[in-house]
Amino acid sequence: MHRFDEVTLEFYGIRGRDHINQVFQPGYEIILDPDNGRQRPKGIGYQNCFFTDTGEPIPDCRFTAPRGAVTRVTLVVDSPGVALLHCHTHGTSMNADLIILPHPAPPS
Ligand SMILES: [Cu+2]
């Protein structure tokens, strides 16, 4: 995806009760969670992250994707780099990278 693109992600949960997901902007850092001593990412929340079907804003781009249902989330990425899609329920075994390229220059 490109910087400032509006991108919709679709999730369909097939295992587990639900997945508490979060997208972190480029520049996130991995920290030790003081509650359980496990590693987890810490990042900056998106300003533009919302449920696609209702338009309801999602604070910190953190949302639950339940099993047996489609969850659609739309976000606008505002800085180039690698963002992390992370599932808090399943930890580092359920991560994905979102590659954000600089916005393409208009054709000349
Ligand atoms: Cu998960």
Q: Biggest sheet, open or closed, and with what strands and sense? A: 4 strands, antiparallel
Listed once per kind, the bound small molecules are:
copper (II) ion
CATH class: Mainly Beta
Shape: globular
Q: How large is the radius of gyration?
A: 15 Å
Identify the CATH architecture. Sandwich
Strand order of the largest sheet: 6-2-8-9
Structural class, by secondary structure, is mainly beta
Mean pLDDT: 85
Our count of helices gives: 0
Unreliable stretches, pLDDT < 50, 5 or more residues?
none
Order of helices and strands: EEEEEEEEE
Helix content: under 10%
Instruction: Provide the β-strand percentage band.
Output: over 45%
Q: Tell me the count of domains.
A: 1
Gap from first CA to last CA: 21 Å
CATH topology, by name, is Immunoglobulin-like
Total strand segments: 9
What's this model, at a glance?
This protein has strands spanning about 5-10, 20-25, 30, 40, 50, 60-65, 70-75, 80-85, 90-100. It has about 110 residues and is mainly beta.
